[in-house]
Amino acid sequence: MTNSAATGVLDKDGLSALVQILAAQGRTVIGPTVRDGAVVLTEIGSADDLPFGWGTEVEAGRYRLVPRADSAVFAHTTGPQSWKTFLHPQRQKLWSAQRAADGRLSVTEAGTEQPSYAFLGVRPCDLRAIAIQDRVLAGGRYPDRGYRNRRTGAFLIAAECTEPGATCFCVSMGGGPAADCGFDLALTEVLDRAGHRFLVRVGSEAGQEVLSGIPHHPADVETEHAARAAVDAARDRMGRAMPPVDLRTLMGESLDADRWDDVAARCLACGNCTMTCPTCFCTTTEEVTDLTGDHAERWQRWDSCFDVDFSYLHGGPVRASSHSRYRQWLTHKLSTWYEQFGSSGCVGCGRCVTWCPVGIDITEEAAALRDERADRLRREKQKETER
What we know:
This protein has twelve helices and 16 strands. The strands form four sheets. An eight-stranded mixed beta sheet has the order 3-2-8-9-10-11-1-12, with helices on both faces. A four-stranded antiparallel beta sheet has the order 7-6-14-13, with no helix packed on it. It is an alpha+beta fold. Helix 8 crosses helix 10 (about 320-340). About 40% of the residues are buried. The protein folds into two domains: about 10-90 and about 110-235, no CATH class; about 245-285 and about 310-385, no CATH class.
């Protein structure tokens, strides 16, 4: 946990009041709920929609929803969606064009009004992912206006992790199960003999205003200690870890590694890793028209560097093989992202591991590249010694 002081404690009624006050402010409240055998993010009408008593079991290429013996709300791992589903939607209209009877053409930009969002249950890894997407899509010379409109004023309620999954590796990516910044309110769930409650920390003036409008108790030492202990224990129970090397250098020195052939033999190039990744942002545009040809629309939709046409230039694709496309994705995510945006593109959420149909593990691939580089350097050193 951070050094910021805890402000209060919510019980279940307080959690319900939190959802109600956010809705009363005209916000669209998005939170986790159980649907179709998974914990998914969707609009919720009340705290009763949250996944009380549900947890998850995950592994590479495996996800299972499992009932719990208690009524924990935030004891599940990240699901197939991230918050980019709402801030950077899969498909959005950019403009439409209409030809009138006299032949004149009018172009109308798509509406700029966006929902006022409140996100309930944002994991610390996803807070970091949102901050990365802010730099990518809302910063720079050419910001995405749609993203910026959706992001501006969004109210973020973090849920600190107390039970990391087997595919989580946020600590090795410089993060952790604690919410350090970027939130309006941060909740830490506690279940013990004293009851089921949520320690609350305030991260903004808007968060303080919301908290003051709902029933809560002053933070007590017992709850603070239990919350801190649960988050600290989670930090030591990460299911996976990136190898402790400079990943930027490793990727740059592994462009010709044999390991790329190995992973290409397993990769289906389906793009699941990019779709579930909370920071992948690539899009393409497409035009659609009606049968008369008098009305046309331009839409933006998600795209993936695993699509063979993604790098298509005149004459053919630049990256025609699975080998080159997987190498592009991993090298960009862990290395060249720094050159563009000043940080890694990976937050260690583990979604790409869980939702890969063949169970390709990004941490395992990085470790294999490290080992191959070490073997190569050892052989080179041995040759130098023998000369």
